[in-house]
Write a structure and sequence with these properties.
This protein is mostly helical and 168 residues long. Helix content is 53%, strand content 11%. The strands form two sheets. Strands 3-4-5 form a three-stranded parallel β-sheet. Helix 2 packs antiparallel against helix 4, helix 2 crosses helix 6 and helix 4 runs parallel beside helix 5. The chain is globular and about 60 Å long. The chain starts with a helix and ends with a strand.
Length: 168
């Protein structure tokens, strides 16, 4: 199955608008997402009836919450431009200065795995959004419920609906 040209155009258009949102505003939305996810901890085992509930909480919920906290605390520093010192340039270019600037790609694709269908795509999704990208998320078979939960929580947190598209 291919993604339509219309869907790609929608993602590209959303990427232009999302990139203009300040980092502080994006991180505020991540904080809201984290709080909403934390409040819904009891429903997560229902997504994986074949797993023990404690495994779902420790393998899916806790790492995703920790990743949210990491982004809230460190994304500004990690994504900020910095000067690359002497170790950031070749030795045969003395006197040349360089800077490392991280810029969003625009639209990115996340292929969610089947073994951790909430935690792994959730972390990648939030990292991409904080960096200024929009996301097309393709869940693994059986991971559709987790993908819907992620997108619902993003919308409830205040992320624009156009920043994440779930592919069939």
């Amino acid at each position: 199955m291919t993604v339509s040209d219309d869907a790609v155009a929608q993602l590209k258009q959303a990427a232009e608008h999302w990139d203009a949102v300040p980092m502080v505003a994006r991180l505020r939305l991540v904080r809201r997402f984290r709080c909403l996810l934390r409040r819904r901890w009891r429903i997560l085992p229902d997504l994986y009836p074949q797993r023990p509930a404690v495994e779902t909480w420790t393998a899916e919920l806790l790492p995703l919450l920790a990743a949210c906290r990491f982004l809230e605390r460190n994304a500004g520093k990690v994504l900020s431009a910095r000067k690359a010192g002497m170790w950031g340039r070749p030795l045969w270019l003395p006197g040349v200065t360089s800077r490392v600037e991280r810029r969003p790609f625009g639209a990115v694709l996340i292929l969610a795995p089947g073994n951790y269908p909430l935690m792994l795509p959730g972390i990648q999704l939030l990292q991409a959004l904080v960096a200024g990208n929009v996301v097309a998320l393709k869940p693994a078979p059986g991971g559709e419920a987790a993908a819907r939960l992620l997108v619902d929580l993003l919308a409830q947190a205040g992320f624009p609906p156009s920043v994440c598209m779930v592919l069939p």
